[in-house]
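Researcher: We're teaching a course module on how sequence relates to structure. For the next exercise, students receive a sequence and then see the predicted structure as tokens, so they can try to spot secondary structure elements on their own. Here is the exercise chain.
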Amino acid sequence: MKYNQDKVDETTLALLYLNMWDEGAEARTWKGFDWDTLDRLHQKGFIHAPKGKAKSIAVTPEGRKMAEELFHKLFGN
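Model: And here is the predicted structure for the students to work with:
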């Protein structure tokens, strides 16, 4: 199936914001999303390497900012 990967990436990043928490100097979130999408978000510089044993991923400062903006844009009142 063909789909707009950028729209999926934006929506996924917005949903990652929903479960984001601060852990020291970085933000983390659960990584229960499609691996290809997480890889693209990593390539775009929004999250750190998603592969590994941890059930959560670190979010870059740019990723946190973009995730918050997209969350409010897509799901805000």
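Model: If you want an answer key for the exercise: Residues 5-25+32-75 form one domain. The mean pLDDT is 95.
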